[in-house]
C-alpha cells in the first residue's frame, strides 16, 4: 500500500484509461503467431489519426504489440528494441522469444520501482526449436505464456470469443477468421469507434503484415 501511494504521488495512476483504450489481440496457430492492434492515436477525447502502428518489430522473428500512452509506448518499445539488437551484436546470437520476454518483464519490473511505464504488451515470436509463442505482459511486470491473449477494454468482448472458437494448431485462414470475429464484435458492440486495425504474423520465414 505504501508503494502504491508513492507511485500515485509522482503521477503514476495504476490501470489508467489510456492503456485500456488501446486494443491488442494475439493468438498462436499451427506454424505462426498472430497479433492485431487498433490504429487509433488519441489523447483525452480527441483522436489525432488512424494510421498508428502499435506493433514493433524487435528482431526479424520477434514482434511486440504495445498499449498505453504514446510517449510510454514508443519510448519503452524502442528501448527494448535497441537492447535486443545490442545483445545480438555483442554475442553474435539473437535472443529467443522467451529470452526477449524475460528481459522485457525484468525491465518493466525495474522501472516500476523508479519511473514506471504505463504499457501493456503482447510479445510474439517464432523460434527454430520451440516454434511460435506468445507472451502476455502488463505494466506491473507480470508475464505469462499463452495460446491467446488480449489487452484493453477490447478484451472484455474478445476473450469469450477466443474461449469459444480458439483451437490448437489453427491454420492461418482459421486464425484470420477468428480475428475477424473479434473485430466485428468490437465494431458492433464497443462504445469507442475502432475503424482500422493492423495485423502482423511471425512465421519461420520472418515477420509480415497481412490483411485482416
From TrEMBL:
It is found in: Cytoplasm; Nucleus. It comes from the Eukaryota. One of its GO terms (cellular component) is cytoplasm. Belongs to the peptidase T1B family. PANTHER family: PROTEASOME SUBUNIT ALPHA/BETA. Component of the proteasome complex. This is Proteasome subunit beta. It comes from Lotharella oceanica.
Amino acid at each position: 500500500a505504501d508503494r502504491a501511494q508513492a507511485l500515485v504521488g509522482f503521477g503514476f495512476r495504476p490501470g489508467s484509461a489510456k492503456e485500456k483504450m488501446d486494443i491488442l489481440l494475439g493468438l498462436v496457430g499451427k506454424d505462426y503467431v498472430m497479433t492485431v492492434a487498433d490504429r487509433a492515436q488519441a489523447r483525452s477525447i480527441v483522436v489525432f489519426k488512424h494510421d498508428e502502428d502499435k506493433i514493433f518489430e524487435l528482431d526479424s522473428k520477434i514482434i511486440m504489440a504495445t498499449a498505453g500512452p504514446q510517449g510510454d509506448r514508443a519510448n519503452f518499445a524502442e528501448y527494448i528494441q535497441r537492447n535486443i539488437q545490442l545483445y545480438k551484436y555483442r554475442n553474435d546470437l539473437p535472443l529467443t522469444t522467451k529470452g526477449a520476454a524475460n528481459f522485457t518483464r525484468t525491465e518493466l519490473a525495474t522501472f516500476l520501482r523508479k519511473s514506471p511505464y504505463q504499457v501493456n504488451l503482447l510479445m510474439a515470436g517464432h523460434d527454430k526449436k520451440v516454434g511460435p509463442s506468445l507472451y502476455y505482459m502488463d505494466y506491473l511486470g507480470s508475464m505469462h505464456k499463452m495460446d491467446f491473449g488480449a489487452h484493453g477494454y477490447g478484451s472484455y468482448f474478445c476473450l469469450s470469443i477466443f474461449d469459444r472458437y480458439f483451437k490448437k494448431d489453427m491454420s492461418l485462414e482459421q486464425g484470420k477468421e477468428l480475428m475477424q470475429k473479434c473485430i466485428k464484435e468490437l465494431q458492433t458492440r464497443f462504445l469507442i469507434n475502432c475503424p482500422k486495425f493492423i495485423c502482423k504474423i511471425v512465421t519461420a520465414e520472418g515477420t509480415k503484415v497481412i490483411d485482416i
